[in-house]
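User: Hi! I have a protein structure encoded as tokens and I'd like to know what sequence might fold into it. I'm fairly new to this, so please keep things simple.
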């Protein structure tokens, strides 16, 4: 059984108007190839500079 992370699949990023890239259920597992996957590069401004957050590098 594969559990899907439903919070990360909502329509917009929390407390923003930035739309998430829609991923159909059959494309959720990382093992499935999904060449069309092209999510927006978005990081909430509220986490910039936090010691627990990954640094912004400009590469993903």
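Assistant: Happy to help. Inverse folding works backwards from shape to sequence: for each of the 60 positions I chose a residue that suits the local structure. Here it is:
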């Amino acid at each position: 059984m594969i559990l899907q992370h439903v919070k990360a699949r909502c329509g917009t990023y929390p407390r923003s108007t930035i739309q998430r890239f829609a991923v159909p259920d059959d494309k959720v597992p990382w093992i499935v190839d999904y060449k069309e996957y092209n999510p927006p590069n978005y990081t909430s401004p509220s986490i910039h500079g936090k010691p627990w957050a990954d640094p912004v590098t400009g590469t993903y």
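A useful reference point when you look it over: The chain has no helices and no strands. Feel free to ask if any position seems puzzling.
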